[in-house]
Q: What sequence folds into this?
């Protein structure tokens, strides 16, 4: 199985962080194909950036979808997920979606934590978008500045552990989800210190991809996720334009 | 007052259709400044196209936001609305949002109609995004093909009237909203033939812009809609890149 | 445009407070026609008082609806709104409804503040009645007594500002709504000191009236807000009895 | 136990219809004290009429609350219920509320039927007001005119039976509630012909009153249903004015 | 009337506690028939124990349903309620259900308290199961260990009173429900010290049984609560096996 | 990986049907260990039977949980799932839960079909229990009798295909889930004939087990799904009694 790991951020180090985490749980026959956004932002952290980053996800998929059996949108918040799912023939899964669905099988309500409060509204809207509000115990975040996005996991590990510990008690959450690409792999480091299951979003997405590939559910030819009819466009990146115009075979 | 009417579609004729409708209800001192998407799709009709079109809306606003006191995202489904609202200092209003909120003051539940069933899932998700599900009696659409997007209003007027009439009875809807840029101005033609109030989305958006401009509510400097901190980017259209980087003054 | 500003309270000074606020944002051609309840309570502050005050609103409209192009129910909580909307041919808008809908265009969730906790349950039930629970970050109120209803705005301005400031941070609210007729005009005084947009309910209602008048949506002749069939009555105030009996032309 | 049966309609014959139904299920020691609205409408059937009728309910309670251990608001839709519950020291129960709560103990979802579609929106808003939307399978009503309000039960019995039978199958409802004072007692006539339990609203209210009287829960002195502080008024019916002003002992 | 009071716990002293409370409010002609679980747990306090205890409730009913006109499932959380309601011809009511429905007639939202936080998730899921989430102000519980289950009411009375008092203020709850068989009768001891109505679950269930018996709603022969078709089984307790197989007459 | 496939029904042929379906998608290193209920019903099809069958699931797990790395509750409706998840150290997943969560990654809303309408209420309550109501387009079922439970899949294949085809169009569902153990494997036969993805519940559960085993989330030691404290019992099957009493090591 070949799984595309699409990082909508342009930071190659974040891709690596996620790839390492992903490979730790991938099944023996699974190959993770990492792709870093060729343009966009070092790290998406607002609705506007997600709007643009989500459009770039579609370009990335247009370029690479033939190389994978499934694809992961590897930014918490799942930018571009719905459009990608509609447009391409392979399963496309978001890392926040995958983490939340896995968490649903481990407890009543999950808690999402982030290293910065900037992400809260976007994450909360992501929970609502997936219709999982009743299964979410909240989104909690650290206040205050941080150094570099690629080092923040080390920098804040202790504070995140404290935040998680107190918020779990306060909210009765049954599962913890560390949100955001920069926290990829954190679950493995902290799970032994926490009293509830911890789900790594990238790892969850890999396993969900493997699951969907094995289930062979097929692509819709009707309903709301069938591929849209061919549509011309002007001024778009050529790959996505060709795919939307059904010019790419 | 200067109101930017941003058409995320590239079809200039649709812009004109909306401008004409808009000007009929604009207050004496209001100037409508129409802007047609410089790139993108002739007519957005899927989630993927809305993802891309929404990103283009941000570029259009980056180029023109200084010229307006408020802006309208003039595609039903409100592509890019949340990001736009977050990013710019002027009020930004979507035409579907404006129509639904106006309809809330006219009855218990509103009905949205479209000339093509292709739009249904996107419109339904738009209703949910605004948290107005309990006020919506449904989204109904004509089945079958249509000729040109700019002529569909004339072509389907009679069928839309029939659809609206029967759906109003069936759903007990109190208000009708003809959805989609190609139906701009239809409300004025059919309202006399229908037994419930009819709201034109573009017109509603103009009046809501005038309202917000007059209310001078101010731009958030905290909360989830404050302007995000400056962020570098790579490979984006220069105007939006500059605005997001706070390089545009 | 002539807009009836119906104060369901009998306190003329509150009417004046709202009229002054209303006129500051009314469009050039708009005339505000203030009408104070001829009977009832100095200030409605319970469900029972709202039940009675709402019935008096209907009497006020029966007497004056021919003089206006639209009407405002000018008590936060919108007493009598649904009945009024059903009964009369002109648009009728509540000040809490108008403020909440305007706030929906300015952020994700709004916060309502009051000068007294007595109003909380009524306000909360008003939010639910409008189906806007998912857009409301809460209703917060000052504890403790206050002097006169017409002076409470000055008396409590500082405390309300503190309450708003801390509650905005705590709830992540994006918009502030100062609730209640006695706080009319407060928004203009405090908005510069607050980090999120502030909406004045009376002003919002004026602009929403202007919007609906311009949109000319028409009065329903079917659905749940058509005018009810003629009905006799006994022992009611003559004007409303005549209107309900269709005896008033 | 003395239970006030307050008919907010002025039609004495409807009061008698409900009293007969009520007495069939009242416990041996229970006395039903019927009171017909001294002013108002022969039969409330719109939101506006409910607004006024609900205010009259408060007057009726101000006059009679000392004579009862509990009171029933005997119009489906529960006009004035919240205000009455707040204002008086005895339990006050609405017939629609009582029927719905009883139905909750008999099945998953209940179906409400009415002899006229005019009542549908008001009944639906009543279900929402009580937060029981997820337990309601719908409100169904006969179309078409009817003769006299006091004879409609006989006139439409067969049609109501047909409506109920088909709607139960269609909606999977587990319980049937015949809504509206004119249908009081119908349950006893039709229950043998229907495949699900049928609840008579007036009877349910009597039993719920007996239950609350026996439970002696006490009147709130804090919270949202404590008695409001004394309030002066002008131009109201003397009894309710005195009670609201705390002038009635 | 004969009401079966089925204690799904094996602790006879808890049955007695509930019987005493029940008899204080039972009507003159009502006989309470207490039945203690012949097998199972001294006190159900987890989802797993409720799963098993609920199955035992069905066995208890199979053995005794002919002796009662209605039955009470006398454990807060209502184990086995849905199955019992489906399976037997008499009304079956849970004590938490009865308490919550009674509380709905006394205020906007009720608060449930427990002597141990172990019960919280089960109680919360019970509120959701009944679709009453919007009427519940929360479930609060004491932390810390307790002595014997039959003495915990005395042991913790003072702490429960403190918990209730502060939580009522904090949540604006209008009604208090002391949850759990071990707190049966507590309402009568503490209601005079609390500022809102207090509902005893066992007492509420008795009164609701009396109500349903008097209403004679009948047993469904269609819909989701009709008696299931005869079904063979293997290895089950003989009484329930016979009833499910329709072998018991 | 060893996955316990626990069939709460006593029909060995159903177990085989599910095992065959399961093995088709299991990963190379996965062993499916089938266990058929040693007592209970040939086929659970009511709430009461699910109550008892769910208790038997706990007994089956007590006997076998040490032999598996995860366990599947292999009856649509997920009897006993919450208790099992609470009680045992390995992940426990229900087949309806797994199918619904997988479906969430394939479209907006899923449709569940059944070969008999008897299952509808139980399935609908299962959807609600998981908080997935907004993702479900409905539960549809064939009317009419069927022959044997183990042959019903062949007998009704054509009718189920017709039901699915029409219901998908009518409800706009994006994904189809054939519900119930007797339909295990049907997805593979019909998916080529249907225009939307089809998810086999047993297969989905296998893949979700593999996912959770790989993710190693750990067992909660706090929160609502920690293992309950040791509890004595009387008269229960020895294995489950020992596990609940912490007597099983």
A:
């Amino acid at each position: 199985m070949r799984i595309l790991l699409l990082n909508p951020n342009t930071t190659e180090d974040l891709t690596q962080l996620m790839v390492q985490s992903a490979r730790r749980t991938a099944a023996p026959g699974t190959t993770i194909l990492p792709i870093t956004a060729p343009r966009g932002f070092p790290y998406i952290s607002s609705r506007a950036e997600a709007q643009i980053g989500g459009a770039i996800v579609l370009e990335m998929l247009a370029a690479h979808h033939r190389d994978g059996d499934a694809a992961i949108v590897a930014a918490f918040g799942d930018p571009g997920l719905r459009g990608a799912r509609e447009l391409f023939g392979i399963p496309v899964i978001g890392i926040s979606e995958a983490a939340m669905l896995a968490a649903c099988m481990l407890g009543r309500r999950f808690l999402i934590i982030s290293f910065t409060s900037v992400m809260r509204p976007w994450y909360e809207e992501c929970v609502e978008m997936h219709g999982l509000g009743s299964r979410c115990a909240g989104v909690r975040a650290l206040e205050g500045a941080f150094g570099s996005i690629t080092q923040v996991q080390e920098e804040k590990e202790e504070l995140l552990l404290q935040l998680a510990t107190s918020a779990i008690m306060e909210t009765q959450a049954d599962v913890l989800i560390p949100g955001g690409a920069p926290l990829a792999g954190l679950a493995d480091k902290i799970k032994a210190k926490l009293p509830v299951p911890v789900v790594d979003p990238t790892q969850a997405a890999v396993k969900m991809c493997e699951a969907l590939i094995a289930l062979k559910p097929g692509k819709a030819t009707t309903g709301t996720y069938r591929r849209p009819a061919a549509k011309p466009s002007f001024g778009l990146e050529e790959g996505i334009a060709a795919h939307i115009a059904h010019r790419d075979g």
Observations:
- Chain C has nine helices and seven strands.
